[in-house]
Amino acid sequence: MNIDLSSMPTSIDIIHLILASLTLILFILLIKKPKQALSNSTETATSASNMDKAPVIEKTPTVERVVVKQPPQLKEASPDAALQLLTLLQQDARFIDFVKEDLSTYSDADIGAAARVVHEGSKKTLDTYFTLEAVRNEEEETRVSLPEGFNASEVRLTGNVVGEAPFNGTLIHKGWKVSQTKLPKIAEGHDTSIVAPAEVEL
Predict the structure, then answer these.
(1) Domain count of the chain?
(2) Residue 74 lies in a domain
């Protein structure tokens, strides 16, 4: 086969220029694609490796606060108010005389008569110097319910105490609480330990 070199184009026409450009672009894309595939495979492998290496969360030991309950501080009561009340009971009801008396030599009728005097005088003292109210308003011998967190200083549980509140039981006694105290003032220098002075008749 004979090729006539004189018939070959001596200049680059537009078609050849376009074909050359397309060839160059395809060549660049062909080179670049394996790099992208390699990069993607590397990223996938890295992410898989990172997934395999899950973040390690170190558990620090939990420190529990131990609260040591201090025993309740005991407040020393002043004896003056107690001695003053004892003085008033003796003054109005002869309370100490009645309690200190040997009742074995007296008949029940005599004791009953003396007890009436003590009862009336004691009631007068309490009504004069104290305002008393019942702790519970329900009738005695009725069923009551004590919820969780009830005031243990107001209600004392008796009998078969098992478990935790709420409790259901029978009200045996209403209880008493003082809502107001009106004891008389004590003069300075007064000896409250003398609850009943000796009496000398002249």
Answers:
(1) 1
(2) no
Between 118 and 65, residue with greater pLDDT: 118
Give the mean pLDDT of 140-165. Answer: 93
Answer whether residue 67 is part of any domain. no
| 62, 94 contact by CB (below 8 A) | no
* Weakest mean pLDDT among 16-20, 41-45, 143-147: 41-45
Answer whether 152's CB lies under 8 Å from 100's CB: no
Residue 61 is predicted with a pLDDT of 64
Alpha-carbon span 125 to 190, nearest angstrom: 20
- In eight-state DSSP terms, residue 104 is G
Measured between alpha carbons, how far is 190 from 186 in angstroms, rounded to an integer? 7
- Distance, in Å, from the CA atom of 93 to the CA atom of 115, rounded to the nearest integer, reads 9
Q: Which two tokens stand for residue 28?
A: 């660049």
Please check whether residue 41 lies inside any domain of the structure: no
Residue 50 domain-assigned? no
Q: What is the pTM of this model?
A: 0.59
Element (H, E) at 40: helix 14-52
Who contacts 147 (Cβ-Cβ below 8 Å, separation ≥6)? Answer: 165, 166
The CA distance from 195 to 96, in Å, is 9
- Is the pLDDT assigned to residue 50 strictly greater than 80? no
Full residue range of the structural domain in which residue 128 is found: 79-149+166-181
